[in-house]
């Protein structure tokens, strides 16, 4: 997600939130897939790396998600 920050001289710069963790819904929305597909990939070890919170919900680091997408690229 991009935020905008006003710098000196009125310049506006886009700033990424590198520390933000994605939810399963965020990932599914970005990929255009159903939650069941995400969990199916996860069960088969084919989904992005996840963090399990103490309440049982999952979060995905943006960097892990981006790296996973790169690994999914078709190089043929």
Description:
This protein has 76 residues and is an alpha+beta fold. The chain has a domain at 24-76. It contains three helices and five strands. The strands form two sheets. The protein has a three-stranded antiparallel sheet with strand order 3-5-4. The longest helix is centred in the C-terminal third of the chain and has 11 residues, at 62-72. The relative contact order is 0.16.
List keywords for this structure.
alpha+beta, 3-stranded antiparallel sheet, two-stranded antiparallel ribbon, 3 helices, 5 strands, 37% helix, 24% strand
Q: What is the compact description of this entry?
A:
This protein has three helices and five strands. With 76 residues, it is of the alpha+beta class. The strands form two sheets. A three-stranded antiparallel β-sheet has the order 3-5-4. A two-stranded antiparallel ribbon has the order 1-2.
List the helices and strands and how they pair.
Elements: E1 2-6, E2 12-16, E3 21-22, H1 24-31, H2 35-43, E4 51-52, E5 58-61, H3 62-72
Q: Per the principal axes of the C-alpha atoms, what is the gross shape?
A: globular
Major beta sheet, strand line-up: 3-5-4
Distance between the termini: 31 Å
H-E string: EEEHHEEH
Helix/strand structural class: alpha+beta
